[in-house]
Amino acid sequence: MWVWLTILFSGLLHINAAYRGPKWQFYLFKPLTIVLLMCLMWQHGLTSFYQQAIFAGLAFSVVGDVFLMLPRDRFVQGLAGFFVAHVIYSIAFWSQLSASMVWWLPAMLFGGGVIVFLLLLPSLGKLMAPVALYIAMITQMAWAAGEFWLTTQSMIGMVAFAGAVMFMVSDTVLAVNRFRGPFTSATAIVMTTYYLAQALIVGSAIL
Fold first, then answer.
1. What is the mean pLDDT of residues 193-201?
2. Which residues cross the membrane (predicted)?
3. pTM here?
4. What confidence tens digit (pLDDT) does each residue in 50-88 have?
5. Are 206 and 40 in contact (CB under 8 A)?
6. Torsion angle, CA of 49/55/57/62, rounded to 10 degrees?
7. How far is CA 114 from the centre of its chain?
């Protein structure tokens, strides 16, 4: 319980610093929150392939976080870090399937991904290809988590899928804020859903 409270407090300090400062608090607590989740997993033990994959995904998420928060624009590098994280998460989720896949789920998820891409398209410019690839990957990751849940009917699968959906919400709001125009509450929404997504994915590995 205390570890989870520490993680929550770290995330709140980052969100608060994004609006009120100081800068050092903003830079410290964004990656530290994910590092604390990694420490939680390490303490719990990385005994299965699923746990090891989630741990590796968190590590690449830290890389993405660092690039995205740098003063100079490192959006593509940050995108690449999270792209790799989603590849690893996907492998973890697909490894847990135990029955035939459900085909209505990818149709629904990829339909939503196409809508988001079309919404962003007029403002993407040279970033059209990287953003399209990223949307495809995170949608595929959510599909993998959804299949994990639907084929196993397990609490672990449900928690993983909830985390994947929160990740999609976070990245969608981030993209709208960046490409369609910034709005005040964006950072709070993006980071709250992001930390919740990572916490749920970690939860699926230690339940």
1. 98
2. 49-68, 75-95, 101-124, 131-150, 156-176, 188-206
3. 0.95
4. 999 999 999 999 999 999 988 777 999 999 999 999 999
5. yes
6. -170
7. 19
